[in-house]
Each structure stands twice: as structure tokens, then as C-alpha cells.
Amino acid sequence: MQNGKKDHEKHTGEPSFKMWLWTAVVLAAAVFFSFLYLYVDLVRFADTPTAAGAREKAFIVFPGEGFRNVAENLVEAGLLEHPIKLRAYARLKKYDKKVKAGEYLLSASMSPDAILQVLASGKVRLHKVTVPEGYTLVQIAHVMKESGLSTAEEFTRLATNPQFVRSRGIDADSAEGYLFPETYLFPLSITPDEIISTMVGHFWRQFKPEWKRKAELLGFSIHEVVTLASMIEKETGVPAERPIVSSVFHNRLSKGMRLESDPTVIYGIAGFDGNLTRMHLKAPTPYNTYSIQGLPPGPISNPGSAAIECALFPAETEFLYFVARQDRTHHFSSSLPEHNQAVRKYQLGK
User: Fold this and answer.
1) Among 23-37, 283-297, 300-314, 327-341, where is mean pLDDT lowest?
2) Which end of the chain, N or C, is more open, meaning fewer C-beta atoms within 10 Å of its C-beta?
3) Which residues of the chain does CATH 3.30.1490 include?
């Protein structure tokens, strides 16, 4: 009788255990397939663009911005849908910790995964900024303002800060002359400090070692070379004339003659209105080369490589004067009578 009771207990316990086991298996399978469905749904979401053929638009991730806010902004910009799915997928793939601040070009024709890859790559949108040869510091500040990269005031303040300028290897109190003219690609997040440092760094990379040696042979400092090059740059826009203009200045310097360069006078006039008068030529400013001897105290523009090279390697001529023709080229003269005759012909129409 006792053995029968034990067998009965044994048999009645087995169905309970089996039922519990099958229930656990079913629940586990349900959980597994639920997660599988969610994962497949997330992958399908991540691989599906919101709108095929959509145009690119600028999208900005601000420094310190959380991913939840980034996701909401992406939806608000119409670049994708379902911010909760985006956050889940980003967390799954660890994109939520990799997104970098900056301005990006994105499109709703990109899949959410592709958008996240771009935001995590840090490959920000670059703005093309062209600084022409011969632009002054003030003009370059305006270019940066128009490009939306800096205020003109902040750019100018930093470019004329003696401590900052000298920390960039410039032996002067202003970056005028060292803001190398070039076409640059800058991100929107760039600071005025970085812009100026990039331009000045480009200048030093362009200033060849043989140019330094040639400057020493001529008895010029680098600052004087840049100053002379800036004058050449402003005097003529004709490349073939640069070495000849340079020869005129070198010849006058060697003879102790004043350089008498109109662009230097203009540079020294605050608020110049475009009309150079005799009064201006007599105005006592540090940049008036009609009244001072030698070079002005610093560059009057930012010259390119060609002008710098011509400042160091002038043409061999006897010319001491030049006057502009109507076609913007110049007539060069070796004597004052010849020059006066050219002035009457090309300037006075006599």
C-alpha cells in the first residue's frame, strides 16, 4: 500500500513539471520572437529612407546637445520619422554616443542608418571662402562676415591683437599681410582664432626657405618683404608688370628716393571715399610714402605668392616712375621729364 501511494505521488508530479517546462519554453519563444520582430523592424526602419529623391539640407548638431534632442530635430527637419525607433536603433548600434557637433548636409532620401553614420563620422559641411590677392584685413573680415563664419568685429579684433598675432610667428602687431589669399574650406563651427591661424599658417608654408635667404641677401626682414609685396599687389593687377613695378621700388630705395605710392597713401586714410586728392598726398600719416622715406611701417594688403616672389626677384631695369594707362596697364619711365610727358598723355589727355 505504501509503494502504491508513492507511485501515485510520482505520477501526479510529472504533468505539473512538464506543464511548467512547456510554459517556460513558450514564454521564452514569445520573448525571443518579440525581440526578433522588434530587431527586424528596427533594421527595416534604419535601412528605409523617409522620402526618395529629397534634396539636401543643412542640419546642425550643437556642442553638448543630447541625442534625444538631435533625434527630435531630425524629425522636425523632415529628415526622418519615428524618433523613438531612431533612439532605439542608435543605442543598439552605439551611435547615440558618437554623434559629433557641427553642420552637416543631410537628405530625407538617406536612410536613418546613413544619417547616423554621417553624424558619427564628424564629416561636417565645409563652406568655400575665397580671399582674393590684395585684399586688406578689413576686406577679409567682411568676407568672413558674409560667409557667416565670424563677425567682422571679432575677426578684426583678433587679427590686430599684438599678443595673438606675435604668437603666430609674426613680427608685428597686426596680421595684415599674413592672411594668405586662397580659397579655403571651413566648417561653420570654426572660430576666428582658427580661421586666422589657418591663413597665417598657410602663409608660412608658402614662404619658401630660399625666399628667406634672398631676403637676408637683400638686407630685408620678412616683414619688409611682405610690405613691399603688398604694395606691388595693390599697384598692378597685371601679372607681367609685377616684376617691373618691383624694380621701380627697388631702384628708388637704392637711390634714397621716396616711393610715392598712391595705394600706401590710401591705406593710411581713415574712411577713404575713393577720391585721392592733393591734400591726401600731403597728409602726414605713417603710410604716406610721398612724405616718409623708405617703406611704410607694415603691409597695406595681403599679397599672394607671385607678388612676394617679385618683391624678392625684381626685373633688372632703370625705371624710376610709372603711370597708369586707361587700360589699367602702366607706362614706365627712367627719368622725370619722360614721366611727366607720360602723365600728360595718359592722365591729362594732352
Assistant:
1) 23-37
2) N
3) 56-121
